[in-house]
């Protein structure tokens, strides 16, 4: 093959060359191919992570309910007047909401604490191993929760230990997938790309709800075992096929990770003799402008989102009287709205260049929408569908934008002077802080719900206001920058 042919773009190389004639063959650009595969694999991975978090919200509807209207299974000596025969100890009494809230918090506090360490680990290990083994162990955690049904386990401490283990291994997910995607993609249209890609969160919730609801009324153990097996299999796929960095497969590096004064070999060593950048520390990451503000805003935003994640099916059943399966399926509407919200927030952020202002606008609209949904959402089915999707859109829009495009932007901030190894640490700090809020929200809901769901909604409204306040300084800076840009345009 001639040098001209070797140097030609891959899509224009010849299948047959005869004399001066060249018959081109169209082939997909190698870099584009691997980018598409990376998006698909990381999308699948985090869909599985959320799929395995969702079954416990469906489980809550059958673990403590009035059994007097149910038909006892044949062959069992059960008093049909016993209102608790179908419940599962230790959740078979009036204080079960507090115990279930404790399970949520066990998972989420373990997740939040471990997340701060997970970012440091992710920057120092092969992300293919980090994600694949994290997924396999997460599947095992889900399997062990469902195993309690098979082995007739009623010890509350068993459920707590499984939840803590699950929370720790689930922290492999977010720093891992965001860093991999950040390694492959530059800053152009990042909000839109991440907005579409981040629909894995809502899709995982939907799949987890659908899988769990298929089994929950006759064998709730399978509601955990089946998603766990699916996740473990997908973890094996990640192990076999994921390329965590372009250099692993000989592809070019995206613009934001190219150092201006040096080139790096695939193993990370410098061709110019300079030492490659080292992973930054916790305090260095906190000094990046905007990290603290967005972390605290996500604390309150994720508090709201995860309260819906863990308690929405229970609220729908209590407020509408639907069956456990139907209330779980109905809650999917919140996640469908969340998919639209994540994409819309990304598009608005890309178009305006004002990510904090985009989040704040949605926070402002969320407060009255929560009030309207709580007051009028149960009037009729059509109203419930519309309002629930709007709430999902507004709640998940800012949450998706902060955890994806904004985290990636801060992790490659110009103040780092080209150090691309901050992304996992920054992502872990922001999502770890948000996860503390995610742990607080469902825990509070478990204690407050028995005194009226309206009180839960008041707490969620207050949390949205706090999320808005933490972004005020950045919003003001964005507006000033926008006005300066407009003045420059008008002057020109």
From TrEMBL:
The chain crosses the membrane at residues 32-52, 98-122, 129-150, 156-185, 224-243, 291-312, 332-349, 356-376, 382-402, 422-444, 456-476. It is found in: Membrane. One of its GO terms (molecular function) is transmembrane transporter activity. InterPro entries: MFS, MFS_dom, MFS_trans_sf, Sugar_P_transporter. The keyword Ligase does not apply. It is a multi-pass membrane protein. PROSITE patterns: MFS. Pfam families: MFS_1 (PF07690). The keyword Transmembrane helix applies. Keywords: Membrane, Sugar transport, Transmembrane, Transmembrane helix, Transport. One of its GO terms (cellular component) is membrane. This is Sugar phosphate exchanger 3. It comes from Frankliniella occidentalis (Western flower thrips).
């Amino acid at each position: 093959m001639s040098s001209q042919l070797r140097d030609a773009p891959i899509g224009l190389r010849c299948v047959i060359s005869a004399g001066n004639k060249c018959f081109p063959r169209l082939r997909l650009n190698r870099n584009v191919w691997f980018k598409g595969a990376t998006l698909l694999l990381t999308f699948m991975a985090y869909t599985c992570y959320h799929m395995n978090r969702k079954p416990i919200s469906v489980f809550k509807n059958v673990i403590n309910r009035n059994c007097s209207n149910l038909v006892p299974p044949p062959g069992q000596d059960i008093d049909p007047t016993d209102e608790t025969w179908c419940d599962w100890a230790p959740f078979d009494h009036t204080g079960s909401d507090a115990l279930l809230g404790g399970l949520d918090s066990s998972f989420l506090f373990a997740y939040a604490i471990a997340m701060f360490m997970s970012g440091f680990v992710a920057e120092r290990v092969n992300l293919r191993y980090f994600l694949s083994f994290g997924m396999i162990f997460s599947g095992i955690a889900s399997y062990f929760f469902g195993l309690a049904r098979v082995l007739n386990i009623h010890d509350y401490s068993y459920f707590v230990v499984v939840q803590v283990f699950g929370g720790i291994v689930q922290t492999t997910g977010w720093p891992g997938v965001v860093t991999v995607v950040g390694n492959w993609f530059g800053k152009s249209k990042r909000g839109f790309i991440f907005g579409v890609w981040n629909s894995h969160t809502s899709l995982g919730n939907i799949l987890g709800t659908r899988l769990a609801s298929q089994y929950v009324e006759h064998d709730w153990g399978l509601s955990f075992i089946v998603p766990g097996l699916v996740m473990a299999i997908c973890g094996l796929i990640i192990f076999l096929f994921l390329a965590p960095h372009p250099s692993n497969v000989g592809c070019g590096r995206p613009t934001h990770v190219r150092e201006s004064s040096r080139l790096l070999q695939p193993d990370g060593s410098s061709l110019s003799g300079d030492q490659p950048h080292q992973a930054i520390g916790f305090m260095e990451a906190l000094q990046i402008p905007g990290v603290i503000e967005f972390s605290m805003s996500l604390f309150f935003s994720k508090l709201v989102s995860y309260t819906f994640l863990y308690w929405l099916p229970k609220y729908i059943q209590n407020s509408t009287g639907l069956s456990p399966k139907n209330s779980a399926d109905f809650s999917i509407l919140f996640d469908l709205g969340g998919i639209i919200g994540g994409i819309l927030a990304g598009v608005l952020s890309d178009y305006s260049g004002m990510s904090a202002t985009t989040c704040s606008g949605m926070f402002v609209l969320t407060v009255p929408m929560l009030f309207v949904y709580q007051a009028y959402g149960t009037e009729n089915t059509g109203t419930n569908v519309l309002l629930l999707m709007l709430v999902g859109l507004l709640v998940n829009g800012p949450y998706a934008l902060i955890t994806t495009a904004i985290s990636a932007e801060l992790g490659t901030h110009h103040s780092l002077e080209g150090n691309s190894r901050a992304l996992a640490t920054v992502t872990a700090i922001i999502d770890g802080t948000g996860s503390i809020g995610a742990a607080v929200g469902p825990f509070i809901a478990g204690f407050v719900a028995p005194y009226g769901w309206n009180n839960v909604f008041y707490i969620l409204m207050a949390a949205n206001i706090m999320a808005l306040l933490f972004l005020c300084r950045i919003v003001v800076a964005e507006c000033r920058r926008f006005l300066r840009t407009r003045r420059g345009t008008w002057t020109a």
